[in-house]
Amino acid sequence: MPVLPIAKLGNPVLRKMAAPVNPRDIQTYDMQQLIDNLIETMLDEPGIGLAAPQVSRSVQIVVMGCEGDEDGFPQTILINPKIVFYGPQQVENWEGCLSVDGLRGKVTRPSVVRVQALNRHGKSMDFEATGLYAVCIQHEMDHLIGKVFLDRMTDMSTLTQLSEFDKYWKHDPVPAI
Ligand code: ZN
Hints:
Blueprint: H1 29-44, E1 49-51, E2 61-66, E3 73-86, E4 90-97, E5 100-110, E6 112-118, E7 124-130, H2 131-143, H3 149-152, E8 160-161, H4 162-169
Antiparallel strand pairs: 1-2, 2-3, 3-6, 4-5, 5-8, 6-7
């Protein structure tokens, strides 16, 4: 399984609306290979999430996963995902992105989301996510509508280069999404 090159900020593919996947195409070799390559690329970087547009495929597929006791979540593959409910509470988290090298910034998002999507076998999923899982889902789904976390920042003064982040803000954990 090859590791795919990551599209970086400025690449027009990151600003496009991704096309939905025809459910009949999910089981094709091409689509299954794309999913495997997305996971491989995410693990290689390493990141905790990756959306298909980030490897220059403008289709509605995201993969994510994060090991860890406290804020870990299972490996998840979402095809044509939709958020059908946002919790009323907002939380602020540091975010980074494999398409935005060396920067971190604080983003405020709903703390709970309910998601409907298809899995890699074409089966329907319907689940609720909280914590880092909810943040990651919203971050990755933004990539499907041409948005990056910088667009969601309300206070640009928190934008931080990685070296300074490590120096001043490291106590706030923030994996690259
Ligand atoms: Zn990202």
